[in-house]
Known about the structure:
Structural class: mainly alpha
Largest sheet: none
Radius of gyration: 13 Å
Helix content: 55-70%
Amino acid sequence: MAYSNRIAEMLANASETDKIEFAHFLANNLDSAEQSRDGARIREYVAAFDRFAAPKQGEEF
């Protein structure tokens, strides 16, 4: 079965640098100024990307 979620597929194939850059973009645009500078917050975003990108059981990219 092919995985049909293009966002998850793109996150799965993205480099760590790309995911960190995207996390910074989201933090700067969605979080308060204090949260956007928090390194832990960026790591939370990247971890969420990794969880979202993980294929479901039986699915492949």
